[in-house]
Amino acid sequence: MKGNRFSIPDAINDESMISVAEAIQIVRAQTRKLPAEPVSLEHARGRFLAQDVVADSDLPPFDRSQMDGYAVRASDVDSVPAKLRVVGESAAGRGWHNEMKQGEAVRIMTGAPVPPGADSVQQVELTRELGPSEVEIVESVTTGRSIVRRGSEIKAGQNVLSAGERIGAAGMAVLASFGYAEIIVGRQPRVAVLATGSELVAVDQKPDRDQIRDSNNFTITAYAELAGAIVERLPLAGDDTKLLKRQIAEAADRSDIVITSGGVSVGVYDFTKPALRELGAEFFFERVALRPGKPTVFARLPNGTLFFGLPGNPVSVSVTFNLFARTAILAMQGATDPTLPLEWAVLAHNVKGAVERESYLPAELSTSEEGILEATPLKWGGSSDFVGFVRATSLIIVPRDTGIIEAGMRVKLVRLPV
Fold this sequence. Notes:
By secondary structure, the protein is an alpha/beta fold. The chain contains eight helices and 28 strands. It is 19% helix and 29% strand. The strands form eight sheets. A six-stranded mixed beta sheet has the order 7-4-6-5-9-8, with no helix packed on it. Helix 2 (20-30) runs parallel beside helix 7.
């Protein structure tokens, strides 16, 4: 490595393959965070925090009742039934803030402040009202019963969320509760998506003989948006180096990442790499020891825009996008860990690996009656079988040079974003 960039390894020159782990490491090393920006709370969901979120108050901010009932002194109800004088009422948003004395009780609602002098709450089902100002407690209570103490959840000044975390629906409640009407987040990458190949026609056209409808543009767009990107879907590009070069260059001028599908192998009509070389792109890898998805390209264009050239087969597109392009999109937003998290599951049926390549095989996940996560490999016809892939919720990882992994064995996997 020279400075903060990888030198192009000899492996690229002789077109040998690098491992999936090496490819991911290179993507992470070559991807830089985008500048942060402020957004209003209503637009924060799904974004990545670029600042820590700190509690501006104790939570709860006061001793709070867990249920409807009566605030009492535990010592007053040691012997039951015990009659107490009702001196007030504490409701959510309207507490009773006088000092409660011996022999007294305060009617209290769930979430309401516990009045000074009270040390427990007895639920209303274990009391009997004798009139508007008298209650009978029919069961004793212990000190602290049904009270959530001030600051027991978090104290003012403590970190609640950290930079790099994604803001989910539950996180919105945290931001709102601590007064974050505006929050600093990582900027969403601008991603341009381009499908190549003269055999492709638009989705609203009927394919002629030897043609197919484009699907990769829509798959990549969907996955990129799930990762938080702002996507521009470009018109289809034919097998023309000059045209492809112009489209890539124009897209790079307004994008942080350009992603193409198709045209990255070594065939006569694979024009993506020649176009990139003519544009002066810096290549980081061209082939990965991966099944499916070996001919995957990662490069950087002269203006700094990252480029991913994904294979043309639909399943290969899904696998390589989620392993590599998704990693870059999340890293640009400042995600703490932009890679797909690894999990373990029990294999429901046998799977077979590949010589010299790591396999990522589509599977459905389920949980057994015993609570064990199970992975069921899907029947599919290879990297072009997008119909067989459609129900995949995860990818089983089979190490390179592995023969058969038998049912009942534990396997590593990654879940596919949905």
